[in-house]
Amino acid sequence: MLYNAKYIIPGLVVAVAAFTAPFWLNIGTPSYTYPDVAVPTGEDSKQCVEPKEWMRTQHMTLLNTWRDEAVRFDKRTYVATDGKKWDISLQNTCLGCHANKVDFCDKCHNSNNVQPYCWNCHVAPKGNE
Ligand code: HEC
Ligand code: HEC
Ligand code: HEC
Fold first, then answer.
1. What is the pLDDT of residues 95-126, one digit of tens each?
2. 26 lines ligand 1 (CB under 6 A)
3. Ligand nearest to the CA of 123
4. Could you tell me the distance, in angstroms and rounded to a whole number, from the CA of residue 44 to the centre of ligand 3?
5. I need a surface site. Which of 15, 51, 56, 58 has the fewest CB within 10 A?
């Protein structure tokens, strides 16, 4: 009955491997593409709240922390690792510098298929939507 087992079993192994590949190939950190984005260049906006490399991978977490602190604990000031103080505000602080949301936030998110829903409520800078 199982006279074909020597073909069937390797076939099954390959099929199972192919079927589960999307799962095990994704183990570890996902990789993203980082297009050239428009970073602010004004005299008083040369430096982000935290170092660029950290911001690149952690800004989502930072924004969640900001939201929780503001909404739950009414904490409105963020002390950065370099000791500098910032107002906790997506609109005024982040987008105050990153006013070109389209060529900054949106450009990178679009390249990575990320669609934050924040702008349903938070106001995006005018004139570049
Ligand atoms: C005072 C101006 C300023 C503020 C406020 C600011 N940024 Fe930045 N941000 C910059 C600059 C300038 C850079 C580029 C940094 C560099 O080249 O060192 C940058 C870099 C970044 C990067 C990395 C971009 C890349 O090319 O990888 C992200 C993401 C980012 N900012 C998000 C945010 C978010 C989210 C907030 C609010 C929590 C914020 N920024 C607040 C000025 C600012
Ligand atoms: C250099 C690329 C880049 C730039 C610039 C950038 N982001 Fe992101 N952002 C990402 C990536 C990649 C993710 C997805 C990360 C993940 O899912 O782990 C993300 C996720 C987020 C999320 C979480 C969304 C979700 O659904 O989980 C928020 C909020 C966010 N970004 C806000 C901003 C804001 C605000 C700016 C502009 C001030 C900005 N980002 C600029 C790359 C970028
Ligand atoms: C359903 C509406 C809604 C959505 C969607 C939403 N927020 Fe908010 N967010 C609020 C409200 C309301 C507050 C409270 C404003 C206050 O107390 O100053 C707030 C406060 C915040 C704050 C702190 C105060 C401020 O003005 O920035 C941050 C940071 C923040 N949200 C980030 C985000 C991010 C990031 C997203 C998307 C991932 C998001 N929010 C999506 C409604 C929303």
1. 999 999 999 999 999 999 999 999 999 988 77
2. no
3. 3
4. 25
5. 15
